User: What shape does this take?
Amino acid sequence: MAAKSRIWTAALIVIGDEILSGRTEDRNIAQVARWLNDQGIRLLEVRVVADDTNAIVEAVNALRPDHDYLFTTGGIGPTHDDITIDSIASAFGVPVVVHPEARRILEAYYRDRPLGITEARLRMARVPAGAELIPNPTSGAPGVRMGNVYILAGIPNVAKAMLKALDGKIEGGEPMVSVTVRAHAAESDVAELLKAVQDEHPGVSIGSYPFYLQGNYGADFVVRSEDEKLANACAKVLRKKLMAAGVEIVEAE
Amino acid sequence: MAAKSRIWTAALIVIGDEILSGRTEDRNIAQVARWLNDQGIRLLEVRVVADDTNAIVEAVNALRPDHDYLFTTGGIGPTHDDITIDSIASAFGVPVVVHPEARRILEAYYRDRPLGITEARLRMARVPAGAELIPNPTSGAPGVRMGNVYILAGIPNVAKAMLKALDGKIEGGEPMVSVTVRAHAAESDVAELLKAVQDEHPGVSIGSYPFYLQGNYGADFVVRSEDEKLANACAKVLRKKLMAAGVEIVEAE
Assistant: This one.
């Protein structure tokens, strides 16, 4: 069994009226979650807040002391509704300053583009005093790290590029391993069995996720653990007991 | 101009390890947001929390006093990881009881299905003492209303059916009207113009949502107001000023 290691945790704040109005379907929660898992960090809470300074400050200061890392997405563009940088500076009680390296990056990025560098575009060089930059390989304007707060873009492919730039650069533990057992059974048919198998395997959690596909009820039973051997052993026992109970196991995708 | 009416607000708690692990991409935030908007209720905050009693209790008690309505999705199935009902009962300080009507619904639903009604399935008749049911036209097990907390299923099409059953049944104000102006412009080119138009139109907010499609940069400028006339008038001014600035306006989908 693996040695018990420190657990690293994170929270995420998704900033944007467009998510709360239902105009835009969020794509960042899942990708930040998966990326954190790969770094061995557990995402424990997400909040979605409006483009509102008080809401952002309150969420940032509620979450940053409780986690190793806090990520935010959204609100770092050039327009009047982009208030994330100012809000996070306010949360830390520091002024907003122009980051010289960010300014240089933006000047270079816009040099050969129509209009060149403008006051609006230079807004994207503003950071809370004391912050560092997160590289943005896709679209010029960098992300920002302030203390344990990682400020990413809201556009999913830009956020993704910033995460990639951070790959392996922040400390984490062991990635959580998950093994999926897919069964053609209503989850209510095997609820007691699931609980019994979980209880027999400390250090493992089993999630049950029902689905309905092509006229058939089924469920994915997801065995999760930080210990890969333990997860596999538990999944093996689960498969065996399900089959013994007459449940058909199918290949999970 | 419409009379200033009371503003109705809501929060949403998405409950589930599968969202926080990135295994499942959430579909409920957007559909709850759009449905609330149709009821004239503003979604002001969303939290995603783990299948963990303390996390659920804390989020429920933090959010329910601050909003007219609190919605939750997830964790009301028959398996051991479905702890939403117990957690919300705990948040209200009441016991969990079997709701006789829910029991009757489940018995009828499972009468002609394999295995019939089982102890696991009867778990779905449990509610916090004092709660009422929310009809579930799709899959038997009902949703639950406890005070101002509306407890919905996590499976998106079941949550959708429960929302439909609540259509027009809870009090709200005027739906927020939004008018989208789509432009072939980098948002940073028109940031000052946007801010000026918003400042000229109190009661209106303009969001700017950049996109990159088929090699072209563009942005959707979304004009939002509770007053439809005001939203349309502001969008008209915005279109005119954008065109005067040489920006190409395209038909939004």
